[in-house]
């Protein structure tokens, strides 16, 4: 299954990237009381960027965040790094194929509770993922020396969770916030209004680091969240502008609108951009800012006409 992450290919190149992105090489987050290791998987690609990050959290007892795709060599590497320590929990941010299928493989070797939300029905996501029990938003998972709080962050997909390492303020963001690119919102399961709300709510959390499923750990959480919110608002404003500018010429098909709104995106990524465009359009339609006609989209409301 393809990962649902929008990357331009150039972002995986360059010497700094080479140092930070060696598959299987544990990279610690500096300055935390509880050890956190980022371990990159072997699944680099245009849709996953450098690949999926798994995280191993803890000392004598550990938790694993996002075991990744069903890749035996990556699971073997995680087990080598865990080195026989008890695993308290396997935490899964969501059920895309580059995040959750590794859990079933890992559980052949360890005994741990599995935390996450199952794949939404009919979504085509990973059906093998079976959480031990469902936690609710805001609940903490006790993992020996540390606690991890679960935050429901729908938007990219409806069953997306972020996990907050209490005390150290490390937020495992899955595909909710990525480094070096912006997440794709995948309607109808994904939802732009939910996504924006899920970003806003994080601003009241005691965050120090964002640990994404793709890319490097980020040290300025609130700046990153604001940057993403601004990016989404700018894209929404551009959609409204394009619809306003083309009003006299008639309705625009979603494809034509996509080309104009994403004229800054490489051709091969336009199909993915279209997913996020559709998510924006659903929101704009609900807000009365865009109208869907038989011929395509036109600007709603009268304020800009
Ligand atoms: Zn995803």
Short description:
With 305 residues, the protein is an alpha+beta fold. The chain contains seven helices and 13 strands.
According to DSSP, the number of beta strands is 13
Question: H/E element string?
Answer: HEEEEHEHEEEEEHEHHHEE
- The level 1 CATH classification of the largest domain is Alpha Beta
Uncertain runs with pLDDT below 50, 5 residues or more?
Answer: 1-18
Estimated structural class: alpha+beta
Q: Helical percent range?
A: 25-40%
Total domain units: 2
Percent strand equals 15-25%
Identify the CATH homologous superfamily of the largest domain: Ribonuclease Z/Hydroxyacylglutathione hydrolase-like
Largest sheet: 6 strands, mixed
Biggest sheet: strands side by side, in what order? 1-2-3-4-5-6
Number of helices: 7
The rounded distance between the terminal residues' Cα atoms is 43 Å
Tertiary shape: elongated
Bound molecules: zinc ion
- Return Rg in Å: 20 Å
The assembly state of the depicted protein chains is: single chain
Which key terms come to mind for this protein?
single chain, 305 residues, six-stranded mixed beta sheet, five-stranded mixed beta sheet, Metallo-beta-lactamase, Chain A, 2 domains, elongated, binds zinc ion, alpha+beta, Arc Repressor Mutant, subunit A
């Amino acid at each position: 299954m393809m990962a649902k992450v929008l990357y331009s290919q150039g972002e995986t190149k360059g010497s700094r990237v080479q140092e930070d992105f060696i598959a299987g090489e544990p990279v610690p987050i500096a300055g935390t009381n509880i050890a956190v290791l980022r371990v990159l998987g072997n699944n680099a690609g245009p849709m996953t960027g450098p690949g999926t990050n798994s995280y191993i959290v803890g000392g004598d007892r550990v938790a694993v965040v996002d075991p990744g795709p069903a890749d035996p060599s990556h699971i073997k590497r995680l087990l080598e790094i865990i080195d026989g320590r008890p695993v308290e929990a396997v935490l899964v941010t969501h059920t895309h194929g580059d995040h959750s299928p590794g859990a079933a493989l890992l559980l052949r070797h360890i005994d741990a509770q599995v935390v996450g939300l199952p794949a939404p029905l009919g979504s085509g996501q990973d059906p093998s993922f079976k959480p031990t029990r469902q936690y609710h938003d805001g609940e903490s998972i006790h993992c020996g020396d540390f606690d991890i709080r679960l935050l429901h962050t729908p938007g990219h997909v409806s069953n997306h969770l972020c996990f907050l390492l209490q005390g150290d303020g490390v937020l495992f963001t899955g595909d909710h916030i990525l480094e070096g690119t912006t997440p794709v919102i995948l309607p109808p399961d994904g939802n732009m209004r939910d996504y924006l709300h899920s970003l806003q709510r994080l601003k009241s959390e005691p965050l120090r680091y964002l640990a994404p499923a793709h890319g490097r750990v980020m040290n300025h959480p609130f700046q990153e969240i604001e940057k993403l919110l601004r990016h989404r608002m700018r894209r929404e404003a551009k959609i409204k502008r394009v619809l306003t500018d083309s009003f006299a010429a008639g309705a625009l098909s979603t494809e034509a609108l996509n080309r104009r709104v994403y004229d800054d995106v490489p051709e091969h990524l336009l199909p993915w951009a279209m997913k996020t465009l559709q998510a924006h359009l659903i929101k704009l339609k609900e807000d009365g800012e865009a109208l869907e006609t038989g011929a395509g989209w036109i600007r709603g409301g009268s304020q800009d006409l």
